[in-house]
């Protein structure tokens, strides 16, 4: 009799939960399904004889109804996920597959600007430069983050791309700008630097940047899906035009074996494959973060006139996602690239020589090639010059119409950096195909509002 009561009580509890459809998630449905699987059958439970078989029939009917409702709810959630993917894809298409943001670095202690700040964010889409003789020059972007913007605000604009990665799209997020404008701050800002360097460059773990937030969000969204994902982590740098695996320790002795050379190839489907690049399967966010810390220790840095720990290479994180049982995904295996580009400052400013000069030239050549590729993609040109640099060769299948790209351009508020700021803003303008006017900006904000409302309903 106790078993019968337990089954009846469970049926009542589940039916009461089924009414809370506004809070349903795929994890909730899976948990209830697991409970149903553990329900005792007539054969496995030593049922006590009763005066009538009516109670047994009622129990069977209750369990059957619950199973039917769970099947219905699972199908319902799958349909909502399909609608969410469709709305998200249309939303990102309206926004543009290649979006350009600008972030203005805040003023730090010891920097004195008097009464004039050369760079001002006039609104959420416009940057204004104050020039000589009361002249100004304005630039429009998809989003402008003023000096007081938080890491939360930045990631809110980036997060939709992470959702599209779960749906099978390749994606790429760049941080561009001269050394000292906050690229690594935006991308990282976590306490790995206490292991990586004695110089506080990225801040503390209380306000993490895009890299840790994106990886953590990726794992959370993968858990909420009804599919099993295989996620792997890789990290490399492009130093003076050469690819180096940052998860392979550098030889310390002459007798140590040299790491294998990395090669860029294309598979039959046109997907880019990097031969000999280490890809380590990760099961959670903490595993990925530990690998990231390891790779950061091996990145090439040096002291320059711009920064004591200037990055002398492009640092590239690749998170590969594979799902074998989701036919609705764009592709079986796709990639998220998180790229902290080398400083874009001109050699004239750094007054570098020797090795530092060669590093600066290599960085600027590859950045110029990246600008050419993005400009060609925006203008729908037949020929896109991917082969002009290793950077664009690696990212060939993660740029373009079937991918999602965000370029975060960082600028300094310092008057002495005005020339570099103009160069960075011109580069960003070149990468952006459409300049939103006031009317277009209003429409864009309305689209964003209704997109958030729809997602809240669907999720």
From TrEMBL:
One of its GO terms (biological process) is microtubule-based movement. Pfam families: Kinesin. Gene3D superfamilies: Kinesin motor domain. One of its GO terms (molecular function) is microtubule motor activity. ATP binds at residues 177-184. Residues 43-62 are annotated as: Disordered. Keywords: ATP-binding, Coiled coil, Microtubule, Motor protein, Nucleotide-binding. GO terms for cellular component: microtubule. InterPro entries: Kinesin-like_fam, Kinesin_motor_dom, Kinesin_motor_dom_sf, P-loop_NTPase. Residues 97-434 form the Kinesin motor domain. Belongs to the TRAFAC class myosin-kinesin ATPase superfamily. Kinesin family. KIN-14 subfamily. This is KINESIN-LIKE PROTEIN KIF3A ISOFORM X1. It comes from Salix koriyanagi.
């Amino acid at each position: 009799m106790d078993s019968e009561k337990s089954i009846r009580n469970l049926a009542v509890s589940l039916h009461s939960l089924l009414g809370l459809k506004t809070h349903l998630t795929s994890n909730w449905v899976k948990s209830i399904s697991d409970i149903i699987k553990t329900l005792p059958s007539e054969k496995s439970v030593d049922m006590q004889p009763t005066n009538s078989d009516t109670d047994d029939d009622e129990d069977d009917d209750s369990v059957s109804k619950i199973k039917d409702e769970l099947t219905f709810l699972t199908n319902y959630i799958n349909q909502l996920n399909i609608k969410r993917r469709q709305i998200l894809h249309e939303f990102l298409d309206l926004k543009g597959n290649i979006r350009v943001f600008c972030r203005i670095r805040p003023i730090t202690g010891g920097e004195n600007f008097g009464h004039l700040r050369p760079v001002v964010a006039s609104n959420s889409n416009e940057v204004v430069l104050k020039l000589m003789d009361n002249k100004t020059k304005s630039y429009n972007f998809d989003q402008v983050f003023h000096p007081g913007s938080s890491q939360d605000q930045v990631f809110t604009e980036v997060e939709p791309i992470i959702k599209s990665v779960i749906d099978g799209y390749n994606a790429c997020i760049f941080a561009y700008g001269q050394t000292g404008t906050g690229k690594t701050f935006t991308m990282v800002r976590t306490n790995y630097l206490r292991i990586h360097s004695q110089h506080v460059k990225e801040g503390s773990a209380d306000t993490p940047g895009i890299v840790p937030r994106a990886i953590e969000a990726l794992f959370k969204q993968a858990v909420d899906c009804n599919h099993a994902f295989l996620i792997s982590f890789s990290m490399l740098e492009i130093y003076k035009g050469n690819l180096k695996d940052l998860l392979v320790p550098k030889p310390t002795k002459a007798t140590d074996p040299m790491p294998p050379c990395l090669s860029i190839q294309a598979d039959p489907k046109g997907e880019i494959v990097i031969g000999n690049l280490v890809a380590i399967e990760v099961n959670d966010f903490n595993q990925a973060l530990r690998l990231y810390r390891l790779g950061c220790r091996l990145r090439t840095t040096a002291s320059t006139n711009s920064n004591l720990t200037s990055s002398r290479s492009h640092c590239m994180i690749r998170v590969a996602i594979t799902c074998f049982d989701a036919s609705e995904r764009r592709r079986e295996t796709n990639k998220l690239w998180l790229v902290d580009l080398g400083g874009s400052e001109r050699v004239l400013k750094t007054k570098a020589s020797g090795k530092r000069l060669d590093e600066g030239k290599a960085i600027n050549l590859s950045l110029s090639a990246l600008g050419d590729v993005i400009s060609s993609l925006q203008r729908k040109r037949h020929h896109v010059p991917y082969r002009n640099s290793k950077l664009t060769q690696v990212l060939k299948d993660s740029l373009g119409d079937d991918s999602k790209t965000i370029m975060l351009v960082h600028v300094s508020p310092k008057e002495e950096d005005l020339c570099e700021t103009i160069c960075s803003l011109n580069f960003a303008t070149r990468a952006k195909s459409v300049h939103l006017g006031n009317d277009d900006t209003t429409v864009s904000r309305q689209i964003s509002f209704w997109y958030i409302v729809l997602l809240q309903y669907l999720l």
